[in-house]
Design a protein that fits this description.
Elements lengths: L4 H12 L38 H25 L7 H13 L4 H17 L5 H16 L21 E6 L6 H14 L4 E6 L6 H12 L2 E3 L7 H15 L3 E6 L7 H17 L6 E7 L4 H13 L4 E5 L9 H9 L3 E5 L7 E3 L2 H9 L1
Parallel strand pairs: 1-4, 1-5, 2-3, 2-4, 5-6, 6-7
Antiparallel strand pairs: 7-8
Helix pairs in contact: 1-5, 2-3, 3-4, 4-5, 5-12, 6-7, 8-9, 10-11
Bound molecules: guanosine-5'-triphosphate (GTP) and magnesium ion.
Guanosine-5'-triphosphate binds next to helix 6.
Length: about 375
């Protein structure tokens, strides 16, 4: 299968519309759709504008990728400085991509596609292959997902109120911190946000969310430790509705993807939410820890079997030199990465831009 320009142009559009203007507005340094008035699909995005990526958070994203770039992608770029396309080039490329945690399956199919293109398009110069590689990498990130009601291509003009975001993931991946970051960004947009402390398992979890709530200035609805998480969610959604909140974000307990009863608990939360609002949850956000490498992928697969995950937040990108995991995640799961975590602070969250990501890796 060769390079698919339609897929890429969709990616560029994806970048311009749903998320960019869904949660963070006007962040296009590339100039595409910088002004919402220029966007070919305006309208629905204004409730969930993406928070503006500040120069500092731009820097942090670049910084977060720095190790990955220096360790792997500079060497990938260097491969194409040779004079001809030979077997050694393919072998070294394969080694570097696997080293960067792109994953064996994704690397193998990527190289196959590239080799086919070299033949079909009659490429003679390594520089042409380098260009094709960047296109193919961008195309992997351009996951064509119609799932999710806030951030997907197919979200339409539907504006839920409150929008319900269910956040799931294994222990310690960064769920609670990422929720605080999302809440801070939405709050900065003037949105009324309510957080549901549905992690009733860990003693400190409710306090942790309350502290974040205080810090970023959002209400937190919680019960005691040991309470039924579904009951917390029921109360939180009731409170969010009666307060006229724009967004409810549900924090859940970290769970091992292999624990059947805990996965059932997630389904129960989903059922309770749907009883009050059949269109909810509007996004199910899976938080993955970038430092877990290929293990994150295995965990993710189990989650997607338990609940309909619509979006991925890849936390701790700053903590790894193997940011190639993003390609494996998009390719193997077919679920779009919407955000990346770039540090431990409330503003260390960046919206994920496929083309900018690839450019940054090769910069
Ligand atoms: N460097 C870095 N650290 C992060 C990021 N996101 C979260 N962390 C840290 O990861 C640790 C775990 O974060 P939590 O938000 O508590 O993770 P959790 O998934 O809610 O954990 P459980 O509720 O125990 O399952 C904390 O020390 C966070 O500060 C990130 O993007 N970068
Ligand atoms: Mg937590």
């Amino acid at each position: 299968m060769g390079f698919n320009p339609r897929k890429t142009s969709k990616a560029l559009h994806t970048n311009c519309a749903p998320l960019t203007q869904a949660l963070f507005p006007l962040i296009h340094s590339s100039g595409r759709c910088y002004d919402p008035a220029d966007c070919p699909r305006p309208g629905r995005f204004y409730l969930f504008k993406r928070f503006a990526r500040s120069p500092q958070s731009e820097d942090k994203t670049t910084e977060a990728l720095d190790r990955t770039r220096r360790t792997w992608f500079r060497r990938v770029a260097g491969l194409f400085e040779r004079s001809r396309i030979d077997d050694e080039l393919w072998e070294e490329l394969e080694e570097l991509l696997i080293g960067a945690d792109v994953g064996v399956a994704t690397t193998t199919s990527l190289i196959e596609r590239l080799r086919t293109r070299v033949k079909e398009e009659g490429m003679k110069q390594p520089a042409e292959v380098r260009r094709a590689l960047k296109e193919e990498l961008a195309s992997i990130l351009a996951v064509d997902s119609s799932a999710g009601r806030l951030w997907s291509d197919d979200a339409g003009t539907f504006v839920p109120k409150p929008a319900v975001i269910l956040v799931v993931g294994v222990n310690g991946t960064g769920k609670t911190t990422s929720i605080a970051k999302l809440a801070a960004g939405l709050k900065a947009q003037g949105k009324l946000v309510v957080l549901a402390a549905a992690d009733t398992f860990r003693a400190a979890a409710i306090d942790q969310l309350r502290q974040w709530g205080q810090k970023v200035g959002t209400d937190v609805v919680g019960h005691q430790q040991g309470a039924d998480p579904a009951a917390v969610v029921f109360d939180a959604l009731t409170a969010a509705q009666s307060r006229g909140a724009d967004v409810l974000i549900i924090d859940t307990a970290g769970r091992l993807h292999t624990k059947v009863n805990l996965m059932e608990e997630l389904r129960k939360i989903q059922r309770i939410v749907q009883r009050k609002d059949p269109s909810a949850p509007h996004e199910v956000l899976l938080v993955l820890d970038a430092t877990m490498g290929q293990n994150a992928l295995i965990q993710a697969k189990n989650f997607t079997e338990a609940v309909p995950v619509t979006a991925i937040l890849l936390a701790k990108l700053d903590g790894t030199g193997k940011g190639g995991i993003v390609f494996g995640v998009c390719d193997q799961l077919g679920i779009p990465v919407r955000f990346v975590g770039t540090g431990e602070g409330a503003d260390d969250l960046a919206s994920f831009q496929a083309d900018e990501f690839v450019e940054a890796l090769f910069a």
